[in-house]
Every structure is written in structure tokens, then in C-alpha cells.
Amino acid sequence: MKLATFKRHLIESFKSLKRNGWMSVAAFSAVTVTLLLVGVLLSVLMNVNKIAADVENDVQVRVLINRGTTQAQQTKLKNKLEKLAEVKKITFSSKENELSKVVKSYGKGFKLFGGDGNPLYDVFIVQAKKPQQTVRVAQQAKKMSFVYDAKYGGTSAKKMFAIVDNIQKWGLGISLLLLFVAVFLISNTIRITILSRQNEISIMRLVGATNSFIRWPFILEGAWTGLFGAVIPLVIVNFGYVWTHRVLSQALASTSYRLLTPGTFLLEIDALLILIGIFIGALGAGFSMRRFLKI
């Protein structure tokens, strides 16, 4: 395609957007709502998947010590744990220290459980040499004397993956429905453009204009609709994620889990939303050309 021809198509696509004012706004709105929900859903899913992977790859096993266990018995239990071939390091954390972590993470209201009312357990934090050895360490620790329970990241990860799976199923269905609505509205917008320019199109065909020459302005109009409709979702998702990242990072500060950093992650989300917007816009235009222009 020659540069002059492409320039002409661009100008015509802009004129058509302006000519169909309110229908164009309706199409923009459909794309905006669709991409906003898709952007939020992608942000949530990618971060939940990362945290779930962090949990599953956590090489720590928290061995809860029975209440009333004496110092000598704790030492005996520690020696048994150290003899396990998969164990790299063991750290002791008293129930008072565990309570202080809870207070730091969830608020000062939990200070009420201090002293004799502390419901937490003394804990041996056992670090495995490799993530895949964590389950075996936990299973062996549970069988030892003076152990109330042995917890590891894999248990939480399984529950988290089940939640993620449900979010993905429902999110995919809702996203596809919204994408269909957006394509439908864009298609109708292009249809009005076609109907209003039927005489012009007929003349163009009589003088020998090719199908691609007639089709391109409409395809570009749909692509512009998708691109402009992506602007507001980009702004909301970017500022919203930066704020959410700052707040949740403080809450996760006492853990080994982190959210995806805004920089590269947001660039990837932005690029994906723009591509989706352009694609559904051009797709909607393509449907109109096929159904109504019949060229």
C-alpha cells in the first residue's frame, strides 16, 4: 500500500468516527468497560499465581511444639530434626515472638492475647535444602514426639490454586461475554458508517476501486475505536495497581511473599490491553464489512 493511500485511509477513518458521534462513544464505552475488567482480572490472576508459586516454593516448615513441652524435650526434638538429611537450618521462635508478628501484620488489637492468654505455639522454623524436600520434612516432623503439627507452604498453595482456578473460569467467561458485546457495538457503529456512505461506496466500485481500498478505512476506524477505548483502562489500571502494590506490600512486609513490581509488569499489561483493544475493534469492523457491505 502506498503512503499516500494509507494517509487517505487514516483521514477517512477519523472523519467517520467524528461523523458517527454518539455511536462511536457507545463503542468506546464498551471497549473501556471490557478492557478495564480484563486489566483488573489479569493483574489479580498474575499476582495470585506468583504468590501461590512463592508459597509452594517456600522451603520452610513450621513445626508447632506441644504446649507444656519442657526445655529438655525441645532440645531433644531439635536434635531429631537436625538429623534429617533434607534439613538445612533450624530456627526457634517463641509463642511471644509469633504473637508479635501477628500484631505487626494485623493490628494492635491482637495484643489482648498476650501473657497466659496467648493461643499460639512455640515453633521450630525448619529450612529444607530444596523446595521439593519440604513436604517430606513436614511429614517426618509430624511423626515426632512433642510435635502438635507441621505446616508448609504447599498446603496453602493447593487452596490458593483452587481459588485461582475458579477465578480463571468465571473471569474467562465474563471476559468473553464483554468482548462479544464490545465487538457487537463496534460492528454496529461501522454498519451505520457503511449505510451512510453506500452511494459513495457504489461510485468507488464503479470507477474500479478494489475491495481492500474500500475496506481499509472501516478496519482502521474499528482499530481506532479499540485503541481510544483502551486509554481510560490503562490509566485506571496503572494508578490503581501502583496504589494497591504500595498498600499490600506493607501488609506482606513480614512475610517472604511479594507482589509483582509495577515497572515491567504494568508495561506488559498496557501492551496487552492495547493489542486486545485494537484486535476487537478491527474484528468488529471486519464483521460489518462481511455482513453488510458484501464486497
UniProtKB/TrEMBL annotation:
**Signal peptide stretch:** none
- Family, similarity comment: Belongs to the ABC-4 integral membrane protein family. FtsX subfamily.
Q: Kindly give the membrane topology term recorded for this protein.
A: Multi-pass membrane protein
Please list every transmembrane segment annotated in the UniProt record, as residue ranges: 21-46, 170-195, 216-243, 263-287
Tell me where in or outside the cell this protein is found.
Cell membrane
All copies of the ABC3 transporter permease C-terminal domain together span 174-283
A Gene Ontology cellular component where this protein is annotated is: plasma membrane
Which stretches make up the FtsX extracellular domain? 59-148
Q: Does the keyword Cell division apply?
A: yes
User: Which key words tag this protein in UniProt?
Assistant: Cell cycle, Cell division, Cell membrane, Membrane, Transmembrane, Transmembrane helix
Q: Which Gene Ontology biological process is one annotated for this entry?
A: cell division
- Does Nucleotidyltransferase show up as a keyword for this record? no
InterPro entries for the chain: ABC3_permease_C, FtsX, FtsX_ECD, FtsX_firmicutes-type
Q: What does this protein do?
A: Part of the ABC transporter FtsEX involved in asymmetric cellular division facilitating the initiation of sporulation.
| Name of the protein described by the UniProt record | Cell division protein FtsX
One protein family per Pfam = FtsX
- NCBIfam families for this protein: FtsX_Gpos (NF038347)
